[in-house]
Amino acid sequence: MALLDWYIRANLKIRHFQVLVALEDFRSVPRAAMFLGLKEAQLLKMLSGLEDSLEAPLFVTNAHGIEPTEHGACLIRHGRQVLNRLLNAQEELRDLQEGRVPRVSLGVSPSVTAGLLPRFIAKLEAEAMPLAVSVREGTISSLTHDLRVGSLDLAISILPRRPLSEDLMHEVLYEEELVLAVRRDHPLTQRRLLDWSVLEQYPVILSPQGTQVRQHIDAFLTQHALQISRLQVDSSSIMTNVGVLQATDSIAFLSRDVAEQFANDGLLACLPLNLNETRMRIGAIWMRERHMAMELKLVHMVLRECTQTMAKAEAQAAALQPTWPMQFDARPLHHHEFW
Prior knowledge:
Blueprint: H1 2-10, H2 14-26, H3 29-36, H4 40-54, E1 59-62, E2 65-68, H5 70-97, E3 103-108, H6 116-126, E4 132-137, H7 140-149, E5 154-158, E6 168-176, E7 178-183, H8 198-201, E8 204-206, H9 212-223, E9 231-234, H10 238-247, E10 251-255, H11 256-264, E11 268-270, E12 280-287, H12 294-320
Parallel strand pairs: 3-4, 3-5, 8-9, 8-10
Antiparallel strand pairs: 1-2, 5-12, 6-12, 7-10, 7-11
Helix pairs in contact: 2-3, 2-5, 3-4, 6-12
């Protein structure tokens, strides 16, 4: 243990972390060496020295190339955090030297890209706030991974039903529900009677298995014994889904914010079928252990203001919203009770 402590403090270098991360990324010694500008022999010598000093193999070879061992995965995980912290420090120092504004890296799920995120960016611009924002889209699993390795400062995503792990903190910003969307001139928009059998009559676009949106959809379908017989697209890409809706007779489960944005642009229509039970919590997620810099506190403040504005606008729209015309028969879901 004393030898390990001494090695970590005195001999473990940034270059070691770069080698380990490159080996995991490329799963090949030649490609990792080429990426790092090293000869294969140099890379192998560094890896061998690490393994000898730690008295444990860091990689094993299999049919798919090289794979990190448990010890290797541990070092790689921490190595990514170290390398990302150094990159962040480099960017902050460059910002200070060149007089740039502070920078925040946001990760977002597709469900917030049409509603909250544009309002957030617009508010920053309207109030000339001294903040630069980079945005990356992903699933909650990829976003939380990037939070842990330090490449993201904050994630805005659908919160899972189960509690987040203890290393993560979160704040619920607002709730969002799903709607059924079709293209503006879809045959269903002309139907006098409309019920849930439409899900068996037309192709349906769903979010991929394992995503938070899909879990809400599957729970809804199971609760009410609904069957989808024609799955055409399995996609979380907003633009892909809207494009497919424009070109086909498909029906898509979309967040209300996204669907109404494209409905306002004259591209989509929302079917008058009630999915209120599919309400999802949208929240901000960040690492518990990290100090919250002033710029990140500013982001939290602006996000709260934006969600408050959204809530007021939603309440006003609901108050003015007329009931659906009588020619629509938005029938309840069989005989099942709501949650």
